[in-house]
Design goal:
The protein is 57% helix and 11% strand. It is an alpha/beta fold and 205 residues long. The chain has a single domain (3-203), classed as Rossmann fold (3-Layer(aba) Sandwich). The longest helix has 17 residues, at 187-203. The chain starts with a helix and ends with a helix.
Amino acid sequence: MKPDEIEAKSFAIIDAEAGPHNFAPDAWKIVRRMIHTTADFEYMQMVKISTNAVAAGINAIRKGCTVITDTNMAKTGIRKDLLAGFGGRCECLMADPRVAEQAKQRGVTRARVAVETAAPMMKNGIYVVGNAPTALLHLLEMIKNKAADPALVVGLPVGFVNAAESKAALMETNVPYISNVGRKGGSTVAASVINALALIACERT
């Protein structure tokens, strides 16, 4: 089978096994791709999408926004060609030597410094967290202090320390978000959300 045939069959299996649900069509395209990436149907119960978050993400991509990720793994998984079709790009500053040096000097995590460094390119953009709760928590602090203003936050950090808590904090804000409850998540899942949004944006052209 060709790759597109495998994907189509996979989505057909997911649709059949998922059964009836209350997701709007565009939201389901996102959740379905998350399930496709993980083979985990629990995302149907875990995913939380704020009001207008999907529209905010699609509009940002169609306007050629910058997508910033907290890991190079997430950046690698994102379809840069789809973003480039609208004039957008994907960035990750975690490996930037300047970020590493500043983090060392200040005695803080690179994730924290990377968020701060990305602030200028975050305006009307999308910030994607698939790994570091530290990044998400600091981003929320910056948003509260009006030091950052992303159009959408994809908050899906994975792990046992502050992952669930950072996502719960995101869900208490007025920032458009796509997230999930609990410890699960990860860079590949976060990338799948952006890919789903980008594909929907392409359908609107």
